[in-house]
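Honest question from a wet-lab person: if I give you the sequences of every part of a complex, can you actually get the arrangement of the whole thing, not just the pieces? Trying it with mine:
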Amino acid sequence: MTCRDTERLWNELLDARDEPRPGLEASLEAHASACPSCAEVAARYRALRLALAAWSPATPSPGFAAGLIRALEVEPEPVAILPLRRSPRIPRAAWLAAAATLVASAIALVTFPSRRGNESRLADSPTPPPAAEGPDLSDALAAATAATLELARDASAPAGRLGRDVLASAALPTASPMAPAPAPAADVLRSLGDRVEAGVRPLSGPARHAFGFLLPPLDGDAPQAPPATPRSGV
Amino acid sequence: MLRDDVALVEALRAGDPLAPAELVERFHGVVFGLCLRMMGHRHDAEDVAQESLVRALRGIGGFDGSRPLRPWLLGIAANRCRTALGRRSRRPASATVEVAADPVDPRPGLDDPDDLAGELSRALDRLRPEYRLVFALYHEQSLLYDEIAQAIGRPVGTVKTWLHRARAELADELTRRGVTG
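Yes, you can. This is the full assembly:
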């Protein structure tokens, strides 16, 4: 053996625990007797072996096991740990509720004229059937506005503002998107002009893109734009 | 009549009301022994040993019954000791109990076996926790290299390296303290 093997072989000897390895031990001692540096290493490992031989396993207090068994007997079953409920994500939920409300309101507003006169479909509606043409539309719009505003107010202030603006814009007379757009009446144009002058921007960019079809055309008496050109909103 | 470990695990899984006490009776000594080597304090060691055995009883459903039970239990105890040592190290300095370092023993040789065991225990307390863990698992709990590797979740090569370094440091410390072979 060489000096480089000394530490490895001492570990091999210690790996054997109590198993006798007389050949290996004799080889290590023979090398240590001839090599001063390895003799120091051998002395250190002999001290460790001696201490290990005197080492006894630690034992717990006499009553430890009995106490633990008693504790196990009285310990209740582990309770399933439920994850803490996170606070609701109000802004996202508010936006989703407002968007759903707006879509429902928009669909109701667009399709409302076609329902007029259809008694069986109106009978399913929670709103009472209209008795006369003018006031019924106003009542329905008022009810939808109130319900929408209530929902939007509950959800969030920004969503409420958006719903109010959209409904205010959609309250103007509209035509079916499938039918040819009639020429806007003078009072509609006047109203839109007033709103533009007042700097009203009822819809954000994405909302205008989504619900722009509800808005009345602005081209008025001007020549109708080609179909491919997107219609500008208010 | 005592069951073997496989039968004990099956009894625990089947809900035998006597099985938990049998597990505690059989393994509390080895679990406590490891905890004492790691924690260096009897009271802390008993707390951690109790926590380890309770965890083992709760987790027996996930134990692979084809493997030996003792390394698994000691692995749980090693984990709990590591957590407890981490908790202890994060305690505020004012809450920790300062243990004075033992002075170097000037006596030329110590041949009293009790003193030798005490010297080894004190030297062990000064080792890094991972070295102390593998040394205790190998020399006190008599686990094999691969059982230690499995218990502490480290490769066998790492276990060997840590054990060899632990021995070298302990041998140096014992010699420094006057223990001669």
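Two things worth pointing out. Chain A has a mean pLDDT of 70. Chain A is about 60% helix and 0% strand.
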